[in-house]
């Protein structure tokens, strides 16, 4: 049986198993949403998508399945929006903003199911409409062992101070990897000290993970503070040991994260880049030309570890995270600091083979072990093929994220 026939058989089997939402009402009111989401989570759905003029879709093992008999209309969507966000949701969307938040269902006082939620205005059949995406979040962050994280990443995950970056396209499991790393630090014998996180929205919570020498406080952007940069500035007034910044997306946030790393803090963050070398280029490029050299050298002096992850289909079902990484120890930093910043990207790609692990090495190993198929292998090796293929790598982000 070839891969196309295998995928068809898998889709047919899952379609029969999942079926449709058994409690679908004639009209979806606010009171029905929680039942739908709980049922979706029971089907092991990674995402639930609600869109005007379309049935409800859930995603299982990277495949979309329609699970309602009729499409949602504007009245259904208005009820759902009111339940998730409140009566002013449509006004916020009309102002040209999308909405990121977390949503929680509590079937009983001891159980809660959480969803990372995005609400975006769209055009459907010539009218302004809405799409809502709810990503199911586990109650507990996984462990590094659950994720199969490489030993070299674990060994370099907790430097005394500096900057640790987790990168990859949207939907590549960056937040999950970060949460697993936080869990390891919280549960270790010496604890993590005071950890402050700034996220948009908060995905994983650590209420059920305890350590006698660990104290975790989580703030949501923009619910509690206006921006990630404001979060870092806030953290420096609270004497933390560890700062987690949900995303280093602009010059102000990157600058604040570097300064926090320089002042003795351990800072974790994510960047939407593909590949360790591309991450270095992106981090440098956020600075204005007049300050680029000074800021780039400060960044390199602070950088300790970059991990890039891609989430791809696993042969036999499910998905698997594959990683490219490099620890920026004193030797690596010294080599790069002796070079002009224009050569950092190329030199980083060269150093990866000696001091880290390339995505090509990771994908080759996974392909030989039968974990991924040839298509995934070729996409990964093309998308992470170095600085000369960076434009192709950026294009591949959508392909990898579509799995």
Give a brief rundown of this model.
By secondary structure, this protein is an alpha/beta fold.
Comma- or semicolon-separated keywords:
403 residues, alpha/beta, Beta-Lactamase, Rossmann fold, 8-stranded mixed sheet, 6-stranded antiparallel sheet, 14 strands, globular
Question: What would you note in describing this structure?
Answer:
- Helix 8 runs parallel beside helix 9 (251-262).
- The longest helix has 16 residues, at 3-18.
- The protein is α/β, with parallel strands linked by helices.
- The chain has two domains: 3-137, Beta-Lactamase; 144-401, Rossmann fold.
- It starts with a helix and ends with a helix.
- Strand 4 and strand 5 (111-124) form a beta hairpin.
- It is built from 16 helices and 14 strands.
- The radius of gyration is 22 Å and the shape is globular.
- The chain has helices at residues 3-18, 33-42, 74-84, 89-94, 144-147, 151-155, 174-187, 228-235, 251-262, 276-285, 292-302, 330-337, 344-355, 359-368, 374-383, 390-401; strands spanning 47-51, 57-60, 63-66, 99-108, 111-124, 127-137, 162-167, 193-199, 214-220, 242-245, 266-271, 303-313, 319-327, 356-357.
- The strands form two sheets. The chain has an eight-stranded mixed β-sheet with strand order 9-8-10-11-7-12-13-14, sandwiched between helices. A six-stranded antiparallel β-sheet has the order 3-2-1-6-5-4.
């Amino acid at each position: 049986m070839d891969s196309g026939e295998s995928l068809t058989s898998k889709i047919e089997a899952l379609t029969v198993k999942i079926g449709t939402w058994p409690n679908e009402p004639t009209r979806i009111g606010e009171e029905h949403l929680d039942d739908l989401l709980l049922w979706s989570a029971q089907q092991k759905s990674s995402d639930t998508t609600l869109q005007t003029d379309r049935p409800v879709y859930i995603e299982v093992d990277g495949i979309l399945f329609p699970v309602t008999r009729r499409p949602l209309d504007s009245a259904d969507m208005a009820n759902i929006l009111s339940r998730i966000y409140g009566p002013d949701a449509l006004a916020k969307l009309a102002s040209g903003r999308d909405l990121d938040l977390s949503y929680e269902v509590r079937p009983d006082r001891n159980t809660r199911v959480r969803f990372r939620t995005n609400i975006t205005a769209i055009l459907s059949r010539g009218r302004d409409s809405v799409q809502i995406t709810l990503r199911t979040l586990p109650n507990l962050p996984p462990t590094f062992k659950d994720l199969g994280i490489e030993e070299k990443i674990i060994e370099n995950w907790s430097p005394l101070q500096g900057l640790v970056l987790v990168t990859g396209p949207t939907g590549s499991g960056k937040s999950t990897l970060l949460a697993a790393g936080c869990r390891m630090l919280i549960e270790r014998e010496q604890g993590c000290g005071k950890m402050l996180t700034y996220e948009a929205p908060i995905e994983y919570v650590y209420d059920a993970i305890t350590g006698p020498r660990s104290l975790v406080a989580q703030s949501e952007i923009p619910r509690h503070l206006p921006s990630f940069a404001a979060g870092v500035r806030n953290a420096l007034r609270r004497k933390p040991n560890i700062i987690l910044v949900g995303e280093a997306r602009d010059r102000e946030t990157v600058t604040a994260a570097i300064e926090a790393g320089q002042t003795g803090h351990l800072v974790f963050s994510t960047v939407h880049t593909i590949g360790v070398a591309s991450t270095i280029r992106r981090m440098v490029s956020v600075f204005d030309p007049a300050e680029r050299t000074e800021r780039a050298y400060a960044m390199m002096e602070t950088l300790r570890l970059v991990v890039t992850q891609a989430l791809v289909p696993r042969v036999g079902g499910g998905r698997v995270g594959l990683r490219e990484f490099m620890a920026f120890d004193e030797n690596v930093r010294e080599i790069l600091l002796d070079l002009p910043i224009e050569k950092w990207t190329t030199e980083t790609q060269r150093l990866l083979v000696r001091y880290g692990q390339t995505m090509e090495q990771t994908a080759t190993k996974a392909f030989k072990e039968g974990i991924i198929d040839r298509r995934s292998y070729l996409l990964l090796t093309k998308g992470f093929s170095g600085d000369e293929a960076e434009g192709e790598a950026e294009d591949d982000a959508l392909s990898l994220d579509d799995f």
